[in-house]
Amino acid sequence: MKKIKINKINIKKKTKQKDYMSLELFNLVDSSQIGLPLAIVGKGTGPVVTIIAAQHGNEWSGSYACHMLYERLDPSKMDGKVIIIPIANPPAFLQKSRVSSLDHIDMNRTYGFVKKRKPTEHIASIIFENFCLKSDFVFDLHSGGPGEYFP
User: Fold this and answer.
1) What is the pLDDT of residue 32?
2) Distance separating alpha carbons of residues 74 and 80, to the nearest angstrom
3) Which domain holds residue 93?
């Protein structure tokens, strides 16, 4: 398994087989903190699977699926890790909007291609550089948000 270390969190050395945490991203002008929710399940040397949901803050089904998966995974039956990011874009999720009003950027269009100057780009670069590039498999969950039309 590859070593993943972010903000003093060393995922390879975690002793718990199931852990849930929030990775600090930045503070807003009112001093409130924006964090990236993160769940880690499993141990061992097997593959690392990362599951990402809610890049668009109005796509809630993937976040719910992540929660259900976390509850059902049994680390004693795993050789490897599942890293779950149930809310990839917390500012947009809190606003129930496809994009955040902080910068109006579609997170799904920023991975690995832009410099991290704005909040959404910063979050995307943390996810891309620290999770996607260090995983054997990445699943990006999307769903229809409110107002979507289905044929």
Assistant:
1) 83
2) 12
3) 5-140
Confidence category of residue 90, pLDDT binned at 50, 70, 90? very high
Residue 134 lies in a domain: yes
Residues 26-53 have pLDDT tens digits of 887 888 888 899 999 987 789 999 999 9
Query: Which DSSP string corresponds to 78-129?
Result: -SSEEEEES-S-HHHHHHTSSS-TTT---GGG-TTTS-S-SHHHHHHHHHII
pTM for the model: 0.84
Q: 137 pairs with which residues across the strands?
A: 49
Is residue 135 left, alpha or beta, with left meaning phi > 0 and alpha meaning psi from -120 to 50? beta
